[in-house]
Structures are given as C-alpha cells and as structure tokens.
Amino acid sequence: MEVTVERPAPCVAKISLSVPFEEFSSEKQKLLVNAGRQLRVKGFRPGHVPPQVVEKLYGKEVEQETKKSFIQRAFERAMEEHKFKPLTNPNLELGEAAVLAGVGYRHDFTINLRPEFTLGKYKGLELDGEQRPVSDEEIEAAIEQVAKNNARPEPAGDDGLAEDGMAVARVEFLWNDQQLFMREGLRLSPSSPIVGVEPEASKKALTGVKDGATIELPATFPQDVEPAEARGQTGLCRITVGQVFKVLVPTRAELVTALKLTDEASLVARVREKLEEAAVDMEQKRIEQALVERIIDAHKMELPAPMVEDSFKHRVETLRRDLAAQGTPEADVEQQIDAQSGSLRTQSERMSRGYFLIEKIAEQESLKVTDEEVVKELRGIAERNRTSFDDVHKYYREKNLMSQLVMEIVERKVRTFLREQAVIKQES
What is the pTM of this model? Predict the structure, then answer.
C-alpha cells in the first residue's frame, strides 16, 4: 500500500492511499477465512465454512471491512510519519471507489488537525492586583441582605400587600377570550413586575391588595407565547390572589440567635470573613482570566475551520434564544445577530486559541486529571442537582461528555497554575 499526504490548508491533511489489486485481494481472503471460522452455515461444520461460501453470502460486507482495514492503516501511518495530531477522533469514510483488477483500491480522505505552534512565555507574567479591603459599608449592606434572606412570611390580613410583601396567586394571560398561559401558586410582589405588564401599573395594582382579590391588567404577550400570532399582541393579564403575606425581617439580635452566634460583634466578624473569602475568590478568578487573555493575545495560530464555525454557530443560536426570550421582534433579532456576527466570530476564534493553549500548557507542565478527580467532579454535580452519582455518571457517559468534563478540570488546573506562577503586584 502506498500512502501520500498533502496539506491543502494549515489544519487539514489530505491522505491518499493506493492498494494494488493483489494486496487487496490477499487481505480480503484473510478476512474471508477468519469470517468462515466464526460463522454457522447450514451444511458445514461450525468454524469450517469455506471462503468461497462466505464470499457468496457476505462478500460485499467483507470487502467493506477490507477497505476499512487499509484506511485505518493509512491514517495511522500518516499520523505517525508526520507527527500529526487529529482535532477529534476521525470518522474515516470509505467512499464509493470500486476495487478493480489491474487497478486495485484507491481512496483519499481529509483529517482536521490541531494547530502547530510554539508555546511562548506563560510563567512569571506580571499583573497588578486589584483586591481592596472590605469596607464597613459593604459589611452593613451584607448584614441587611442576610436579614432579608432569613425573613419569614406571615399572613397580612387586613393590612393588605405591602411593597416588600408577597402574594401567592394564579396568573393568566388572555387573548380574544383564549387562555394563552396559566400558572397556579406564583409568588408576586409589587416590587417585581410581571412580564408583559407595565411595571408601574403592576406595582400600583398589587400594592394593598387583599386575600381573594382579582386584578385585570393590560398585557403585551412575550415572543415565546403560543400561538405564534399572539406574540407581541396586547391582551389581558388576570391575577387571582390566593393569600397575601407580609415579610418580617429579623432584627440583628434575632439574627444573632438564628445563626447561633454569641453577639452582634461575632455577626460582624462572620460577615466580614465571608466577604473577604468571596473577595479573594473573585480576585483569583479575575487574575486567572486576565492571564489567559494575555496569553491568547500573545499567540497567533492557524485554527481548524470546523471548530471555529461550530463555536460561532453555537454563539449565534444562544444569542437568538436570548433575544427571543427578552421579547425582541423576529426582524430585530436577525438584525442584531448580523450586527454582532463579527464580534461573535472573534470570540469563537479566541475561545479556540485558548483551548489549544490550555491543552498545550497542561501537557508541558504534566497537569493531568486522575480518576479520583473525575469521580469527585461527578459527585459534586450530583449533589448540586440533587440526584445520584450513578445517574450523573450514566448521563455523561451516554452523551459522550466525559472528555469535555476532563478538559474542564484541566482548564481549572491550568488557570490555577498560571495564577500561582504569576507575579501579582499589590499597591503599597
């Protein structure tokens, strides 16, 4: 078999193979013999089916297997001799080429490759730190938020719904006497407008409302409502109030007791500690992202076109869904996509460069992922989604997401490594 390789594009290899008829026939004969040892055919002892009988029954299938064998060998030879690194595990197409006497089997196929580039400086990069001490004002605001988070509802009774209160209600969207939407048990507040209803009108109508009240307000239906002809049209939002609650925010003394602390000073200390931890985490993530962006800027490389195109299409579809969810008219959606397409493609190219850079840094620094780390990651996903480890493991395996999960762990390791190796200059 003769194998030749061409490079029609920087991240593409065209592999051509030519197999003489005699060599192809010899390989096919071996497969026929092996198949005869596995088959059960009436009139022949198991494992003793003659090659000519196998040829008659399964000749086409065996010929396809023979082609696969030569294509796989051609691929492996090209990768070994030229030190190519495929972009993904390739699907090697057989093509429609016939095997002809005196000609043999000829076929060519293309493989998308990872880019070839030299890794520049990535350790010891200098960056200005931006972390600031936690202020007293931030602590006070955080304590207020903690108090709100620990607030408890109580029936409002004759007091009605306060601006910071909550009502449990049924909400309906009606259009031409047709019910487009209905949800029971929705939690409403005057401070949180209903989608499609003018905020001030919603706030005014809900404030002071009591148990059992019914409110009807004009509404403009969002872009995801069914039927499609109702989208952007005006109709009615009917709110049937079940029960109204007032929200009681605990005092600081009550908060200290609820959190099992000793006094208000310990509350302030606890909140300061949490804010400082959050600030450190945020600063570390900022540093890591800044370092990755700087490394991406410093490395230029040819990129596999299919990878960039897939990323670009994904970003376009995400933007399209987001705009539709915001109620943007269809004509404006496409206009905004056109306006942002250049930026989306640039983001796709940077993401692709970052992927290969992180991969190469991990290889250079031997930052590998262990089985224990994968299991830990899957257990964390299971806990966050309140499901079992086995279910998460099965899902990732069946959806072929394990390699993506491993790469996510690798990226975190690389980002941590870059930050730990960087020189962070703090203001004096």
Answer: 0.77
